[in-house]
Write a structure and sequence with these properties.
The chain is α/β, with parallel strands linked by helices. The chain folds into 2 domains: 234 residues, Rossmann fold; 159 residues, Response regulator (Rossmann fold, 3-Layer(aba) Sandwich), CATH 3.40.50.2300. It has 17 helices and 16 strands. A hairpin with a 2-residue loop joins strand 1 and strand 2. Helix 2 packs across helix 13 and helix 2 packs across helix 15.
Length: 412
Amino acid sequence: MSHRWRNLAASCAIALLLLTTLGLGCGGGNGDGGKVVIVVGDITDMTGVAATALVPMLWGIEDTADYINQHDPIPGVTLKVVHYDARYDPSRDIPGLEWCISKGARVISTPLPSTADTLKAQAERSKVPVFTWASSDAMVTPPGWVFCNNPQSGRMIKAHLEWISENDPKFLALGRPARIGAAGWQEPYQIDVTKGLEEYCAANSDKFDFVAGFLTPQGTVSWSGEVATLVDCDYVLLPGTGNGITTFAKQFRQKGGTATFIDLDAVPAYKGLLLDAVGWDWMDGTLTSTVAGWWTDGLSLTDLALEIVYQYRPDEAQEMIDAGIGYMGGITGNVPFFDIIRKAVEQVGAENFDGQAFYDAAITFSKTYEGYREWSFTSTKRNLASHVICYEWSKDAGDLVRVGEWQAVPDS
C-alpha cells in the first residue's frame, strides 16, 4: 500500500492556513448570482494531535458542500465553509467560534469533542448551534444548542461489548468473564467511553472483569505503567486520538500483550497511520463499531462518499480511502447537517436563515438514509444515530470487514 496519504494532511493544512490568513472566507448575504450565501463554520484541527484524521475530514465537509451546490442545491442558497484551526486546544474554541461568526457563520460543524463541550453554553448565548460528530454526556445533558451525530461514546461501547459477548468466538470460548481494560488521554471522548466500559462491566460481571481504565494527560506517548497493568487482558480499549493510539498499540504488543483491541469510530480514522506504525499482524482481529458504516458497505452514504472523493480528489482518492474513515466521516457526518440547513431554508426562506432557524429545524428532524436505521433529533434528544455496526480488522482482507448487523445503542 502507498503511504503517500501521510503527506496529504500537511499539504492541505498549509493551503488552508494560507486561505484563512488571506481572509478568503465569505459572509452571508446575496453574493453568488443572486443566491444567499450560507456560511458554515468548521472548527477543527489542522495542525494539532488529531490533524492526521481531521484534515481529511475537513476536505470531506468542503467537498460535500461543493457537491450539494453542484448536484442538489438548496434552492436560493450557495453553501460556503470557513475553517478554523483549534489545534485540539480548548483555549482556542471560543476564539474559533467568534472568528467563524465574524466570517458570517450562523452554525458550526466540528469533529472535536472538546470543542463541543467547551462551546455548549456559548452556543446558546450566541444562538449559533454546534453540530458535532462525537458526543458526551456533558454535550447533551441538559439538551441545548449542541447537536451530536453519534450517541455518547459511553453508550456506544456498551452496545459494542454486548455484541462481543454474544458473537465473538474468542469471547464465547473463554468459559469465564473476559478481562478487559482501557487506556487513553483525558479528554471528553475517552472519559465518556471509559466510564461506559466500566459501567457495563459492573452491570455484567458474569461477562467482563474490569481491570483498569487509565486516563493520562493529553499528548502521553509512553505507556509503560498502563501496559504492565493491562498486558494480561483479553480485550483492551484503544486510545481514541492521534499518536496516543499508535504508541499504546505498539508498546502493548511489544510487551507481549495478546488482547483483542476494541474501539469505536475514532480509531479507524487513523487506520493508515496505525497500520504503518503497528502493522496488520498486530491489528488483525481488532473489533470496531461505527455508526456510519465503512467504505465497502454499499450503504447510501458510504457510496456517496466514494462518488465525492473520486469526483473531487481523484489523484488522492485511494490514499484517503486507505487512510481510514476521516474523509468519509466528513461526508457521512455532515450530510444530515446540510439536510437540516435545507429543512430550515424550506421553513423560513434563504434570506431568513440563522441559528434559530437551524435549531428549530433540527429538533424536528428525522430521516432514514438508505441502508441505515432512522436518524433523528427531538426537543430533548440530541443524538442523531441510535445504532452501530461491528467490523473486524482483517489481515487477510487487508481491510475492515463487516461482521455484524445494526445493533441498538442503549438509552443510558
